[in-house]
Amino acid sequence: MLLLTAFFSFLITTSQAADVFLTGSKTFEITDYSVVKKGVSIGNCIQSDPFTVGGYQWAIEFYPQGFNPSYSDFVSVLVRLLNPKNVVKAIQTHHFRDWNSTGWSTSTPVDSNLRTFSANGYTGWGYFDFMARSNFEVSNYLRNDTLVIKTNIWVVKDSSSFLMPPLSAAAGNLYSWWDQVFQTSDVSVENSKSG
């Protein structure tokens, strides 16, 4: 065990740079879905108010008739980087509010891939086929003609801006160290049992 700890301490102290994620989320409520759907054509969206994550302005985009004609049988959900001046790397997830529970959808796609947002490339990423419209309209995600989308964003900051402490600093009292990390973080951990 001592050899293993020394090995990991060596790895971390000789390569101390690590990616730093700045996180944030936004909920976007859309009322009068049936009216919105009729008034918004394929390829057009309803956009949330801007919100800031990682020092950048973002917006959620909901396409009730699909992102383009190829996806006209789906509802599409994207997150867009507004006024892109720099290349921004981020991970994003989207969930519908499940009105029959206290939580958010788990059956919607989750993309854990790091995406690049830039003025010279894509300013928006998401899911053109987020959910088949026919399934969405009879699901627990639409109630009283209202839906709520929650988008989570993790923006990667320059890894050279953050240095990890050597493992040996935490090895003496891991419980105390993790407690301190969670007290100062924007992360929540949930323990769930299946079965």
From TrEMBL:
GO biological process: protein ubiquitination
Keyword Coiled coil: no
Keyword annotations of the record: Signal
Domain MATH: from-to ranges: 23-153
Keyword Translocase: no
Domain of life: Eukaryota
Pfam families documented for this protein: MATH_2
Signal peptide positions on this chain: 1-17
Protein name as it appears in the record: BTB/POZ and MATH domain-containing protein 2
Source organism (scientific name): Rhynchospora pubera
